[in-house]
Specification:
The chain is an all-beta fold. It contains no helices and eleven strands.
């Protein structure tokens, strides 16, 4: 079992930045690739970005490229999501997930989920 706990969400003005964290406990963190999803009100949960087990590879949804950066610190069992130039369309609950998949990061392909952290962007 892997337990994931997100933190760092909150209310921020448009144009601001946030860094979300996802702390893992349980089985070996570095055994898993990590993925961030988000779910806006009334919408489906969507893929945001991916980082490989040792951080050597990342991938992002086209909608967030250039503004979102994923990193991880395996010594701290934590993955991060840096979000810059926030806009109201980024308002969502952000989830981290652990997976063994290296591609096709759909919601049903994740092994473990956190409960999410809410990001609200005011205009």
């Amino acid at each position: 079992q892997v337990q994931l706990v997100e933190s760092g969400g909150g209310l921020v003005q448009a144009g601001g930045s946030l860094r979300l964290s996802c702390a893992a406990s349980g089985r070996t963190f570095s055994s898993y690739h990590m993925v961030w999803f988000r779910q806006a009100p009334g919408k489906e949960r969507e893929f945001t970005g991916f980082i490989s087990r040792f951080g050597t590879s990342t991938a992002y949804a086209d909608s967030v490229k250039g503004r979102f950066t994923i990193s991880r610190d395996n010594a701290k069992n934590t993955v991060y999501l840096q979000i810059n130039s926030l806009n109201p369309e980024d308002t969502a609950v952000y989830y981290c997930a652990a997976t063994t998949r290296v591609s096709n990061w759909s919601t049903d392909g994740m092994d473990y989920w956190g409960k999410g952290t809410l990001v609200t962007v005011s205009s």
